[in-house]
Design goal:
The chain is about 30% helix and about 25% strand. The protein is α+β, with helices and mostly antiparallel strands and about 180 residues long. It folds into two domains: about 35 residues; about 110 residues, 2-Layer Sandwich (Alpha-Beta Plaits), CATH 3.30.70.120. A four-stranded antiparallel beta sheet has the order 2-3-1-4, with helices on one face. The chain is elongated and about 50 Å long.
Length: about 180
């Protein structure tokens, strides 16, 4: 028997035609999503997860015709004050929301507490308690909402001595 550099050769075993190697195919997003869906379903995942996996690469998960076009704006508020004063308290922040945010967005909002990290103008990395405020509003109200959101950002910076309030906008569809 001759020696092969990678080790001894094995005798060829006939394969079932279904197991024969197939030519490589281009994997499109839909094929990848379909494969992910099949794996989730095979694993017994609920249908909602399968739908999410199938639509992850093609945009929001929606039933046809469900929801209206909206904009989701997230504002990120730090609480440490650069002048060394005590950090913005929960009571102060919620009073700010009640007075400055709710009148412009009475239909609803969400506030989450978190821990944030921010590099200030001097290059110092600050870690601090933070708040994330989420607002949803119809695309048709975008111009008026944008003005109110910018006022909120300016008012918070002034009221609590902040260098910035981050803003993240995403287009989405919403159904209440």
């Amino acid at each position: 028997m001759t020696s092969h550099p990678a080790g001894p050769r094995r005798a060829a075993v006939p394969r079932h035609p279904a197991l024969a190697p197939r030519p490589a195919r281009h994997l499109t997003r839909s094929r990848v999503a379909l494969a992910a869906t099949a794996c989730l379903l095979a694993a017994g995942a609920p249908t909602a997860y399968a739908t999410l996996a199938a639509d992850v690469s093609s945009g929001p998960v929606l039933a046809p015709g469900r929801g209206a076009p909206y904009i989701e704006t997230r504002l990120l508020f730090g609480t440490e004050r650069p002048d060394g004063e005590a950090a913005v308290t929960d009571e102060e922040f919620m009073a700010f929301v009640d007075l400055e945010v709710t009148p412009g967005f009475p239909a609803g909002l969400t506030v989450r507490q978190g821990r944030g990290q921010w590099q200030d103008a001097r290059g110092v990395i600050e870690t601090e308690r933070s708040y994330e405020l989420t607002l949803l509003y119809p695309v048709s109200a975008a111009a008026a909402s944008d003005r109110r959101i910018e006022e909120i950002r300016v008012d918070y910076r002034r009221a609590f001595g902040q260098e910035a309030v981050a803003r993240v906008d995403d287009r989405t569809r919403v159904d209440f």
